[in-house]
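Cross-posting from the chemistry board since nobody answered there.

I work mostly on the small-molecule side, so proteins are not my area. We synthesized zinc ion and want a rough idea of how it might sit in this target. Sequence and SMILES are below. Is it possible to get a predicted 3D structure of the two together?
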Amino acid sequence: MALLTANKVFQMNGVAVSEKIIPDGTRWKDGAKAQKAGFSAGSLYKKQQRLSGGTGKVQGVTIHNTADLANVHDDGEQYTRATYNENMGSVRVHYYVDDTGAWQNLKAGTGLCSNDPVGSAEVSWHAGDGSTPDGGNMTTISMEVIMGDTAAHDEKAKDNAARMAAWLLWKHGLTIDKLFSHTYWVNKSAGKHFADVDRQCTNPVRNQKWCPTYIFGSSNPDIALKNWKAFKQLVQGYMDALNGGAQAPTADAAGTLYRVQTGAFSSKANATAYAKKIKAAGFDTYVVKADGLYKVQVGAYSKKANAEAQMQKLTAAGFQAFITTKSGTPV
Ligand SMILES: [Zn+2]
C-alpha cells in the first residue's frame, strides 16, 4: 500500500513533524467499521470541537506509549495511515511520535503550519474518559510514543517525545506539572486523586490501562514512578532550554520563571551594546524593557537552581549578575 504524503513537514524543537491533519467535515465511510468503533455510519470522523469547552485552551499534554511495529521504518506514518483507513477504531491522537519523527493527525494550536492556527487545538480520543469536561480527552493534547526496534531507537523515540512535549507545554504557557500520563486520567476516572501528581500519573488501577508502559519500564509502581520522573526531567530540561534561549520568553502565565539579569540601562543603545559583549562571551542573551529600563537578561528558568548555575557562569566570566522574577517586553 502506498505510503501517505504529508501536507507539510516542519520542525518542532528539533523533531521533523509530518502534518496530516484530518480535515474538518471528514465522516466515517465504512458503516461496519464505524459501528464496531461505536459510531453510526456517516458520523463525524473526529470530535471536531475545540479543547476545553470550545475555547481551544490547552491544559496539558498526555503521553501514551505503544510497541514498535516490526519491519516498519516510519511507525508514525503507519498509524496515521491506519487512522485514515478507518482501522484505529475510536482512537484519534494529535501526534504519533517515533524515533524517526512524528505525524500530526489533529489540530494542536501550534501555529507551526497553516492548517494548525494558534487557538485551534481540538479534542482527541485517547484518555478513555469520554466527554468528561475536565477529562484528558477534552482538555489535553495527546501524544502516542511508538518505541523502536533497538534500545538506541527507544531512547530516540523518547527523546523526540520529550522535545515535542516540552515545546507544546512551553508554547501553551504551561509548567511541567501539566505533563500527564494516560494512567493519570485512568486514576481520575476511577475516582482516585493523589496530592502528588507523579503518583496520580503512575498509580496502577487494577484491570485498567497502564500507560505509558515502556516509559514506566516496570510493573513495579516505585520503579515506574522513578522512570516517569526521569522522563519529566528530560522534558523539563528542554523547557529550560526554550525559556533560556536567545528569544525572550513570552509565557509568563506559566508560573514563576527565574531570570538571570546582568545589566540595566536607560539607553537602548547601551543595553544592546552590552548584550553584544555578553553574547561574544558565549551566552545567549536578550534585552527586555520594563520600568523604563532596558534590561539585559541571560535565560529564564523554571528551576531556581538552574538560574543560579547560569549566574555563577556569568560571574566566573567577569560579569555581574543576579536573579529576578521580573520580566519585560522583548526589545
Ligand atoms: Zn495510553
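Reply from a structural biologist on the board:
Welcome over. Reading the output above for you: Confidence is low (pLDDT under 50) at residues 246-254. The two ends are 52 Å apart (CA to CA). Happy to explain the C-alpha cell format if needed.
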